[in-house]
Amino acid sequence: MPSSTMAASVKLGSKPDAFRRQGQAWFCTTGLPSDVTVEVGDMSFHLHKFPLLSKSAVLEQLIEESSDQEESIIKLSDIPGGAKSFEMVARFCYGVKIELSSANVVYLRCASEHLQMTEEISDDNLIAQTEMFLNQVVLRNWKDSLKALETCDDFLPHAEDLHIVKRCIESLASKATTDPNLFGWPIREHGIMQSPGGSVLWNGISTGARPRNFSSDWWYEDASSLSFPMYKRLISGMESRRIRPEIVAGSLTYYARKYLPGLNRRNSMGIMPPAATLSDVEQKNLLEEIDRLLPVQKGLVPTKVLLGMLRVSMILKASSTCVSNLEKRVGMQLDQASLEDLLLPNYSYTMETLYNVECMHRILEHFLAMDQANGGASPCMDDMMASPSIIPITAVARLLDGYLAEIAPDVNLKPPKFQALASAVPEYARPLDDGLYRAIDVYLKAHSWLSEAEREQLCRLMDCQKLSLEACTHAAQNERLPLRVVVQVLFFEQLQLRTSIAGCLLVSDNLEGSRPLRSGMAMSGEAGGWSTAVRENQVLKVGMDNMRMRLAELEKECSDMRQEISKLGRGGKSGGGWASHVPRKFNLKMKPQMCSAQEGSVSEQQKSMSAKLDKLQAKLSKQKKQLSADA
């Protein structure tokens, strides 16, 4: 075989170029008149019989069959590569210089096979030359193997029958699953040639400089240049070599982001190199194929990418199987999602809501089913809050509360749908109900026409005992909440205040008891300890004063409520009754239907509320005395 002048090309033949083109015809200027015309498509080649029949068995037979004609005309309509490949074959037959490369070796190999240019006809014939170049040059080099595989698309099934596709894929798969620093050929990354030992090559000469280490994704961009059928076979070849699933998932993600423009609309997804624009149908088919190829393991694909694929699948109206699979994948790692990505717009004309709430509900159900299957925490566990298994579902509950707050302003969102989504997670998933309270408040504000019964039904979603002190303070003054909920909030707020003050007093006593110790430490050289304790004590006292003021305000409110209730009997006969006074006192919006309650119901409510307020007043008075004694 002639010596190689370049790592990826070989020159054949030695004669100078004797071919010239005139329009749609090629002529060989050897000084002898042409005695055969070969027609390939619209192109005609005016050549000589002997160089052709001495290299090709097919051309020899065709020339023999046309020998009795006045002018030999041969038609080659089915030669792989058409006129372009036959031009190279003709040059080879005449011994004119040609250059084999990864860009033309596939169609020359297919054309030579079609023309039966075997060793029985002539030594060092084109079949042998192209096979040697494929095996010794192309298949040993990553870039050349990739280029050869790209050209195979145009020469199917010939390239398939000659096992060129299979050999290129096996070569690429073996290289992608091997450390690039161990390769016995140069590979290119970001324009820098690197030698097998890892030193940078400049003009083919080792400089001795050490390049940066290769990462496992070095081949993603190169592989994405393949057509999807070839790329799919390459991925299958890599999986047969037990390549790590996360590497396969990374490559599939890269391919999807390159050819699905919908995945790159957000800057956070990164900027991808330009790719050929696919039609909507082609994009849909590609997305469904990628979904089938993605490994099923959790966490291999970022949740942001999965949600992007889910959004694109809805836009392209992908199959229900594809959409369902993507929902399950998102559900498996819902705790890693962001609120922004979960807000999937509603692309269906059959739904009224702004966002696709049903999709979110299905994703949540997949997560809960997986959490239960993995032995998630249950309310019966004493050490539930300390268990690591509670962390994912707690994160999902916070995410859900944020999602509810975002979709709550949608006037087309019906209460049953809101309630179903809010109650989907178990109670133990929410250590605090502040986020849920905020979502309910936003919903009540946007749906001001709801009846009192519907408002109470919504408020049953939250537990007033799990509201923080700040949330209780806000809820106590929230005129959108039903009266029953406000009373519950006031009661539990008082309990939280009492607990907080008791804790502050305990800390204060500990600080007072530690004064001699801190003083002794200051005398021994830590003079800043005492001043720090004083400042902490002052801060605690300020907090206690504020709490005392809040208790006083609550006591006054309870006293006012007692006075109002005591007037219920007298006011009931004069028209309006207690229902006309309590709303004005607490700034609550109450329905006119409540004013028509029966006298017996009013009396029972009066007694019940009076008893509750008596207990509340007693507790407040007792705590006030305790605070005075402690002060």
Output the structural class. alpha+beta
Radius of gyration of CA atoms, rounded to a whole number: 41 Å
Q: What percent of the residues sit in helical stretches (DSSP H or I)?
A: 40-55%
Largest sheet descriptor: 5 strands, mixed
Strand line-up in the sheet with most strands: 2-3-5-4-6
- What's the overall geometry? rod-shaped
Cα separation of the termini: 104 Å
Average pLDDT across residues? 79
Low-confidence stretches: 1-7, 188-203, 381-386, 515-530, 572-603
How many DSSP helices?
27
Beta content comes to: 5-15%
Assembly status = single chain
What is the number of E strands?
11
Description:
The chain has 631 residues and is α+β, with helices and mostly antiparallel strands. It has 27 helices and 11 strands. It is rod-shaped and about 130 Å long. The protein starts with 8 loop residues before the first strand and ends with a helix. Residues 1-7, 188-203, 381-386, 515-530 and 572-603 have low confidence and may be disordered.
What is the strand and helix layout of this fold?
Elements: E1 9-12, E2 19-22, E3 25-28, E4 36-40, E5 43-47, H1 49-53, H2 57-65, E6 72-75, H3 82-94, E7 98-101, H4 105-114, H5 126-136, H6 142-152, H7 158-161, H8 164-176, E8 187-189, E9 192-194, E10 200-202, E11 205-206, H9 220-223, H10 228-240, H11 245-259, H12 280-293, H13 303-315, H14 320-332, H15 339-342, H16 357-373, H17 390-407, H18 415-422, H19 434-446, H20 452-459, H21 469-476, H22 483-513, H23 515-523, H24 528-566, H25 568-573, H26 582-586, H27 599-630
Parallel strand pairs: 3-5, 4-6
Antiparallel strand pairs: 1-7, 2-3, 4-5, 8-9, 9-10, 10-11
Helix pairs in contact: 3-4, 4-5, 6-8, 8-10, 11-12, 13-14, 14-16, 17-19, 21-22, 22-24, 22-27, 23-24, 24-27
